[in-house]
Amino acid sequence: MSDFAELHYNGEIIKLPVVEGTENEKALDISKLRGQSGLITIDPGYKNTGSTRSAITFLDGEKGILRYRGYPIEQLAEKSTFLEVAYLIIFGKLPNKAELEEWTDDITHHTLIHEDFKVLLEGFPSNAHPMGVISSLVTSLTAFYPESLDPSSSPDEVRTSIVRLMAKLPTIAAWAYKNEIGQPLMYPKNNLDYCGNFLNMMFSTPAEPYSADPVVTNALTKLLILHAEHEQNCSTSTVRIVGSSHASLYASVSAGMNALWGPLHGGANQAVIEMLEAIKADGGDADKYLAKAKDKNDPFRLMGFGHRVYKNFDPRARIIKKAADDVLGKLGVSDPILDIAKKLEESALADPYFVERKLYPNVDFYSGIIYRALGIPTNMFTVMFAMGRLPGWVGQWKEMRENGEPIGRPRQVYTGENERNYVDMSNR
Ligand code: ACO
Questions:
Q1: Residue 9 pLDDT > 70, yes or no?
Q2: What are the structural domain ranges in the chain?
Q3: Cα Rg, the chain, nearest whole Å
C-alpha cells in the first residue's frame, strides 16, 4: 500500500503523506497542504480531524473498543483502583507496588486545601451550580501555588502540581456541595481511600459520622475508572488547546471542566435524570418522548443517547448498566425512573430511527441512576464526571507538553462581507 495519497488540484498533483498509528489507523498529513496548494481543510466540529498523535487511549467506535494505555476498560474496571488507573494514564505504565504506595501516599497527604478557600466559597451564592464553583476554585489554585504557573518547570514540580490537583479536587467538590446546602465543611481523613474520603466529606456532619458502604465505594470507584480518559473529546481537546498556549495545568484543567459542563458532553448525566423525571411527571409514557426525539420540528433529544465516536455500543455503558443493576439490588433501592430508562432503551434499540443512525445509550444514560442510588444530588453528577476525568485531562496535558506541541490555532473559511466603506450614522 502507498504511503501517500495524491490530491489533484489546479493541474497539480499534491502528495499527502499517510500516517499510521499502532492499531493501523490511517490519517492524511495535511500540515503542509496550504504551503503546497493554498488550500486549507474544513471540518466543523473536527468530526474527521486528528489534532494530535497520542499514546494514551485507543478507541474503536465501530467495534466498541476502549483501552487505556493498551489495557481493556473491562479489565481495568474489574481489577483496578482509581488511583492505579490514574497513574497508568498519567505516567504511561501500571505502577509497581512501591510506585503505587508512593503515589497513593502523596495524594493522601495533599488533600487539605488552604483555609482561605473558605472565603472564596462564601463569595458564591448558595444556588451557584457546583461546576462553576469547582472550575473557579481549580483556577484559584494558581494563586495559592504560583510555582505551578510555569508549565516548563522541572518534572518534579509538574508532578507536585499533578498530585495537588488529584488530591484537592475531591475536597473542593465536597466543599462546593456543603457550601450549597449550608452545612459545615468537613475535612479530609487520611485513613480513608480516595472514594471513601470523598464520600465522607460529602455526607458526614459534625453531628453524624458517615460510614460508606463498600458497595457504594466500589460503585463509585468503577464509575471514576470508566470516566477516567476518552482521548480527544470536547473537554480534553479544550485542555490541550489551552495548555498549548503554555497556560498552567490548573488553568488548562479548569477550562476543560467548563467544556465538560455542557449538556451535550458531561452535563448529559444531569440532563438524563432531569429528562427521566420529566417523563415520570408526565405519566411515564416513554413512547411519547421517543416520538418527540424523532420529530425534526421538536428540539427534544433523547439525552444519554448517541455519541460522536461510538457507532456501535459504548463499552462503558455495558459495564455501567450491569453496575446499576448490582448497586440498586445490593442497596435495595427501587427507582421508578430506572424502569422508564429500561423501557426507553428497549424501545429505542428496536426503533429504525435510532438503529439507522446508530444511536445507542452512552456512558451517561445509566451513570446518573447509580449516582442517585449513592445519594449524590443531581447537580453534582457532572462534578463526579470531572473527578473521574481528571487523570485523562492531566495525562493529555502532560503528553502535549512533553511532545512540545505548537499552539493550537485552527483556520477558517471566511463567509462575511467583502471590503466596504464605513457608513456615516446619518446614512444608515
Ligand atoms: N436523540 C435524537 N436524535 C439524535 C440524538 C439523540 N440523542 N443524537 C443524535 N441524533 C440524531 C440527529 O438528529 C441526527 O439526525 P439526522 O441525521 O436525521 O439529522 C443524527 O442522529 C446524527 O446526530 P449528530 O448531532 O450529527 O451527531 P453528533 O456526533 O454531532 O452528536 C451527540 C453526538 C452530541 C452526543 C448527540 O448524539 C447528542 O446530542 N446526544 C444527546 C446528548 C448526550 O447524551 N451527550 C453525551 C455524550 S457522551 C459524553 O459526552 C460523555
A1: yes
A2: 4-50, 73-407
A3: 23
Considering the domain delimited by 4-50, tell me its CATH architecture. Single Sheet (2.20)
| Catalytic residue list contains 364 | yes
Measured in degrees and rounded to the nearest 5, phi and psi for residue 9 equal: -150, 130
Report the pLDDT value the prediction gives residue 1, as an integer from 0 to 100: 60
What pLDDT is recorded for position 60?
93
The pTM of the full predicted model, rounded to 2 decimals, is: 0.92
230 tagged catalytic? no
> Ligand 1 pocket test: which of 355, 359, 389 has the largest number of ligand atoms within 8 Å of its C-beta?
359
Question: CATH code for 73-407?
Answer: 1.10.580.10
Cβ 293 under 6 angstroms from ligand 1: yes
